Amino acid sequence: MAASAPDPTLIQLGRAWYRPLPRRQPYPCIGHAAAEPGLAQPRNDCARIRMRHRHNMVYPHATLPHDGRRLPHCAAVRFHHGVARMIQRRHFLKSATLGAIASSVAGWGARAQAAVGATSGVRPPALPRGAARVISTWDFGIAANQEAWKILSSGGIALDAVEAGVRVPEADPTNPTVGLGGYPDRDGRVTLDACIMDHLGNCGAVAALEDVVHAISVARAVMEKTPHVMLVGDGARQFALEQGFPKTKLLTPSSEAAWKEWLKTSRYLPEANVENRAWRDAKLPGGKDNHDTIGMLALDTHGNLSGACTTSGMAWKMHGRVGDSPIIGAGLYVDNEVGGATSTGVGEEVIRNVGSFAVVEMMRQGKSPADACREMVMRLIRRKPELTRTLQVGFLAMNKRGEVGAFAIQKGFSYAVCDAQRQDLLVPGESHYTSEPAA
User: Fold this and answer.
1) GO molecular function terms here (predicted)?
2) Is the peptide bond before 300 cis (omega within 30 degrees of 0)?
3) To the nearest whole percent, how much of the chain has pLDDT over 90?
């Protein structure tokens, strides 16, 4: 038998008493249950209500009726109000997102049209389905991208594109950070590192490779012709020669002269942004720049991603030193469900934090490429704030939609973008520090 109401205007639900709201009464203020007009609200003068806040919603956590026993919160009130707010929020986000996309695409087209013939620009928007794009680190990535684009624009696969693309700086004797003409270690020996990864998760790498120009092609041969992922040193060299790669002296006269100049002081200090040619010529005259790499990511017309990374490593390094560039998960990582990432800068810090893998995993969790790169850089800074003011680390990423993002510790990092819209775009990367790196 139901107990008599302490107030004739109340209704009983379970063991608690509730007061109906008038049909046109607005939402009650905080301290009352948030409910749509016409739904029952708990009566505050007959029950103590603990309120909980979630996503700016207020609803009763529990009631304490007259008989002293605790009851669960009013699910009907919370559910109805929550659905109403969720629908409103979803409608708002949908409208805002569509507007932002339209504005972004229109702005990109206008800026690109206005900058025809220029070599700098803004971060490009997402691609339509079936479109291709290739991105790479630093200004020498422009020529590398254009070589990769020859394959992508004809419907070729991303794996072929990234290999062909990074072979360009590998064969450039004027680039002292990659391949032929790369600066040697402190013993005067040029050693190369590289890795490659396709959309199926297959990967190959070489480290401390001597006497072969195209380390990236040797890395692909490791992936396709051996059961292993990485070969190093003499083993990598022997494998390359057996596969028919020509033996080539990598130390050029200019690199040898720079090494002999370095021997006078034997000063070993990684400089930031030496991959940036304008920075290198202005800040490091006489060949004192000392690292590091080109990383490339490509999305083909089939919707598949691949990546490549190749370097001659830090100049004047200890013989046998290996950086992040040939290490899958550090210098490069590709997950065809999500996206890909590559890194540049001081490889030891990237290895310690498994940088490229972490960027891809953050994109898997919903971050944009730009936000994922930023978060990874901030993680490095939080862990070693005293070191990161003088060294450079940067990340470049692209997701399955072709969205691109990059972020670095220091000012000066740049990346190249190539697609059907533009083939010569160089974008300045964002950075944590906006002034020049400390000396």
Assistant:
1) hydrolase activity, acting on carbon-nitrogen (but not peptide) bonds, in linear amides
2) no
3) 62
Mean pLDDT to the nearest integer, 279-296: 54
Predicted confidence (pLDDT) per residue in 28-58, tens digit: 443 344 443 444 444 444 433 334 343 333 3
Same domain, 128 and 27: no
Provide the domain limits for residue 54. 1-114
- Residue 152 contacts residue 284 (beta carbons within 8 Å): no
- Closest to 153 in 3D by CA, of 418, 438, 435, 434: 418
Alpha helices in 131-177 (DSSP H): 141-152, 158-170
For the chain, how many structural domains are there in total?
Answer: 2
Phi then psi for 227, rounded to 5 degrees? -85, 5
In 3D space, the residue among 386, 335, 401 whose CA is nearest the CA of residue 129 turns out to be 401
Count CB-CB contacts under 10 A for residue 280.
Answer: 18
Catalytic residue among 191, 293, 310, 311: 293
Please state the residue numbers annotated as binding site for substrate: 321-324, 344-347
Measuring CA to CA, how many Å separate 274 from each of 294, 339, 381?
12, 27, 20
Looking at the structure, do residues 104 and 127 belong to the same domain, yes or no? no
- List the one residue out of 279, 234, 274 whose CA is nearest residue 258: 274
Instruction: Tell me the pLDDT tens digit for each residue of 177-210.
Output: 999 999 999 999 999 999 999 999 999 999 999 9
Residue 117: its pLDDT value, please?
37
pLDDT classification of 149: cutoffs 50, 70, 90: very high
The CATH code of the domain that includes 159 is 3.60.20.30
Exposure pattern of 13-29 as b/e (b: 16+ CB <10 Å)?
eeebbbbebeeeeeeee
**145 in a structural domain:** yes
- Concerning whether 63 is annotated as a catalytic residue, the answer is no
106 and 127 co-located in one domain: no
Q: Are residues 50 and 189 in the same domain?
A: no
